[in-house]
Amino acid sequence: MKFVAVSSCPTGIAHTYMAAEALEVAGRAAGHEVHVETQGAAGSTPLDPQLIADADGVIFAADLEVKDKERFAGKPVVDVGVKKAVHDPNGVLAQAVAAVESGVVPAAAPGGATAAGGPVTKVDKNAGVGTRVRQWLMTGVSYMIPFVAAGGILIALGFMVAQAAWGENGPVEVTQVPVADLVGSFNALSGKDWAVLLFRTGGLAFGFLVPVLSGFIAYAIADRPGLVPGFVGGAIAGAINAGFLGGLATGFIGGFLALWISRWKVPKGVRGVMPVVVVPLLSSLLTGLIMFVIIGRPIAGLMEGLTGWLNGLSGANLFLLGAILGAMMGFDLGGPINKVAYVFATTGLATEGLEAGATQFRIMAAVMGAGMVAPLAMALATTVRKRLFTHAEQENGKAAWLLGLSFISEGAIPFAAADPWRVIVSSVVGSTVTGAMIMSLGSELRAPHGGVWVSPLISNALGFLLAVAVGMVVMAVVVIALKSMKPNPIVEAEQAADAQVAAREPQTV
Amino acid sequence: MSTPLITADLVAVDLDATDRDDATRQLIELLTAAGRVTDADGFHADVRAREAQMATGMPGGVGLPHARSAHVVEPSLAVGKLRQGVDWGAPDGPARLVFLIAAPDGAHGDHLKILAALARRLIHESFRTSLLEASDPATVADIVSREVVVS
User: Fold this and answer.
1) Residues of chain B with C-beta less than 8 angstroms from the C-beta of A22
2) Gap from A55 CA to chain B (nearest CA, Å)
3) pLDDT, tens only, A324-349
4) Hey, how many other C-beta atoms are within 10 angstroms of the C-beta on A487?
5) B44, B66, B71, B111: which is the annotated catalytic residue?
6) Residue B103 lies in domain
7) In Å, how far is B54's CA from the nearest CA of chain A?
8) Does residue A248 lie in a domain region?
9) What residue intervals traverse the membrane (chain B) (predicted)?
10) Is residue B2 part of a domain?
């Protein structure tokens, strides 16, 4: 990790410098980078703001009031006396590492308005490659989670209010009101208008999911220069239907491009415009080139191929078709394969002259049911096996209940992005079960979305819900089993930090 | 720098002291004899006051009494190697190496940087060991002058 520290003591001759040296030496020995500003009698050279921006945490080994404390706003801080840093620098560092890992940031000091620090990352620059990849993913996921929760809950609330306002067809009606109507004639007393407001706002928040995921993965890799190509790449992943897996790819592509370009040796005259113009421009352009030209075409081809294949399957065994559609829904949660299955179902709905009992309605029911499994199963897994998940994931799990019930598969993306193969494998298994079950039970659905909020539109709704519940339990069991096999170092570090904090704080009854 | 921080006559390699205060006093006498401190009692009082704020025992058996004082002429360092360690308030045991830092009240940047560099060197065990192994004052003064450089 990277730390910045401030040391000071009453005389400013001895302890200030011994503490600085002790922290730097101990840091080097433990593989951390520590930069100390000695606020002593020999005059102090302020820390380079870039060092502060890059630091994961801050150590105050100061017996005097730290000068210009507001520079460190927004960073995890440990505040120890100067003497502790001299005598036990390893202990101080361990405390600082724990503070960074627990991610607790003290409230900004009064008056300190200008935060110099950037957003916190979970990256330990000295960890092994596997751990760092995981940390990059976790950084992206942790910034995405609030968007998933806020957007998903807004959409779900929109469905609920719509159902109350329009009746059973509300969750469909709400999606068909154009934004212009909302802008032109919002009536605070109209439930319908509120439903549209909730739905539209949530939908736009959802538009940020993949860009934020991608942008902050790139940020974790390359710091500030990574943000632009990361965000732009994430938006491109959306544009070419590459889903969150595409967003993971653009996070890495954009991050490493930015890192590479920002390390070019350039003439002095160009250096000034590198971070503002050259790095974001070139890295975004290259990311766009790679995504549109190289990755876009095979994805489009894949979607086309899968669609043709599904259309050819229409006459096949319904049980098998349900299983296949279920597996596709669970695979990439809003990505290309999921989208093919979903569009296959909704296109079927648009067939003219459908009557009750039509296969198209059964397909729609299977697709929606399968799409509800992943977020519900992750919600269940985080509830029954908290210890397998980070704090952020546990919080996301709570929102995932509502998202799953509302057929918002994206609720599971944070889990899948942080740990792709375990979550995707279990999601495919669970969704396959649900898809096949619903097709066998013969539930029909006439609405393209809405989750439980359109249950009045589902025939044999109890069978439908049972199939969803079974898939949910199956996926939760599989994901818990897979995650139990190999502990996640980030989760373990968090728990160690928790234990340390708990041990340090006196128990109050 | 006009005057070296330390010379051989500011080093006592076989100091026999009963306690912290006694060891400090003996080192102050060296500084006074060399003309670097004008008033031994006055300077001693300043060092005591600093020591009372927070003991200056450092890890690795080092005592680091120090003060900025009006009774100091030039920034100076007196080093004492104690025959028997005395308690200097450090958690890891008594001090066997004592560094007395004397800084004039109006000491300016360069002088203070040398003292800062000394404090930084003291963290390194190799530096402390080489001083503990040095058998005569000249070697001690040499090691300090060689190793403590403003970076």
Assistant:
1) 59, 123
2) 23
3) 999 999 998 888 999 999 999 988 88
4) 12
5) B66
6) 8-147
7) 9
8) no
9) none
10) no
